[in-house]
């Protein structure tokens, strides 16, 4: 991915906070960061107590909001960030984005065209069916679907997670 302001190229991929969890390796479960350091893929790691960690979006024992935010960051945050190609949308899906207008809460679309599905806001608290975010995640239509490229199917589990998160949000949007 290219930073549109600096033109610096950054690889698209997982961050340390996405890998800081156990993984079932052939020789037994082990923290992925520890394992990558052991096999020489990572060097200079800080002490484990300082390793950042996102929720595992698939783990129902983790808080719903943490799971939804982790899902959005790893699947949408490469583009929807202040330096990503979708920065013109004014949406940021980094896990640290406050739960407000920057995350899409009661935010009208900037330039989504038919991608709005005639919905008024990116996220409508308590109403996933009225939210542009879930509409675009559920679409398979070019020019509407999100992400725009790299998929031909709808990720049903991820969509359901985001629907559940929006449905659990308190509040309302005024039109």
Entry keywords:
mainly alpha, 175 residues, globular, 5 helices, 25% helix, 2 strands, single chain, 2 domains
Write a structural description.
With about 180 residues, the protein is mainly alpha-helical. It has two domains: about 40 residues, no CATH class; about 110 residues, no CATH class. Helix content is about 25%, strand content about 5%. The chain has a two-stranded antiparallel sheet with strand order 1-2. The chain is globular and about 55 Å long.
Q: How would the blueprint of this fold be written?
A:
Layout: H1 16-19, E1 22-25, E2 28-31, H2 32-38, H3 64-76, H4 132-138, H5 156-168
Antiparallel strand pairs: 1-2
Helix pairs in contact: 3-5
Brief characterization of the structure:
With 175 residues, this protein is mainly alpha-helical. 25% of the residues lie in helices and 5% in strands.
Derived from helix and strand composition plus strand pairing, the structural class reads mainly alpha
Radius of gyration: 18 Å
How many alpha or pi helices? 5
Query: Unreliable runs, pLDDT <50, ≥5 residues?
Result: none
Element order: H for helix, E for strand: HEEHHHH
Distance between the termini: 35 Å
Strand-residue proportion: under 5%
> Could you tell me the mean pLDDT?
89
Task: Based on Cα principal axes, name the global outline.
Answer: globular
State the share of residues found in helices, binned by percent.
25-40%
């Amino acid at each position: 991915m290219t930073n549109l302001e600096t033109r610096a190229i950054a690889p698209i991929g997982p961050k340390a906070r996405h890998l800081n969890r156990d993984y079932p390796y052939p020789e037994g479960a082990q923290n992925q960061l520890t394992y990558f350091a052991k096999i020489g893929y990572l060097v200079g790691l800080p002490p484990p107590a300082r390793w950042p960690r996102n929720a595992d979006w698939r783990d129902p024992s983790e808080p719903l909001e943490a799971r939804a935010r982790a899902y959005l960051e790893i699947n949408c945050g490469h583009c929807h960030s202040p330096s990503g190609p979708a920065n013109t949308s004014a949406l940021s899906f980094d896990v640290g984005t406050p739960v407000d207008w920057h995350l899409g809460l009661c935010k009208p679309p900037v330039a989504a065209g038919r991608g709005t599905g005639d919905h008024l806001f990116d996220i409508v608290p308590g109403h996933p069916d009225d939210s542009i975010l879930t509409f675009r995640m559920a679409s398979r239509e070019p020019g509407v679907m999100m992400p725009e490229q790299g998929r031909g199917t709808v990720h049903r589990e991820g969509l359901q997670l985001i629907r559940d998160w929006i449905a659990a949000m308190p509040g309302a949007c005024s039109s």
